Fold this protein.
Amino acid sequence: MKLFEKSDLNIFQELVGQPFKNIFIQPTREILGDDVLVVNFGKEIKYSFHTLIFTRIRNENALLFTSSDIYFFPSFRSMSSKIIDDNNFIKKSLAKKALINVRKVLKNAVVSDVQINEIGDIVICFNNGIIIEASIDSRQYEYENYRLLVFGKHSCEHYVVEYYKGKLMFYLSKENF
């Protein structure tokens, strides 16, 4: 693990030219303490972006999804903590409806640009004007912010950004299969 530098994430530039594959919320609240938004890229999944930080998806003049959508019903009424404690609450949320729409608008989209700033915020732009923005919003101790998984023929590399002891850190891990 090392201090984060913008150049640590040059691998994100490989997303340029990749088609959108899918997006969903992976319920991991019981394991990680929060749920993970997963965005997959490639005709066959080659890249998988997993984010635990505030993420929004928009076009030039409207929000299509925000991480906060999981805490609201499709009617925009907020959910009670009792409902949120239910493992199936995401299925009842505004996020489910919003992500169905996002999948439709990104169906044939291709990544046209990726921008990363010095504090690790990421902007992924598509050729149809849709933008995914993930902003570092937590400095919790040992809290993963996001990772990019890059799948090879017999391995998977994990490019991970997290807060550790009050500092934004980066590490790369590899698993073989």
The CA atoms of residues 125 and 131 lie 5 Å apart. The chain has one domain: 2-176. The helical segments are 29-32, 81-84, 94-106.
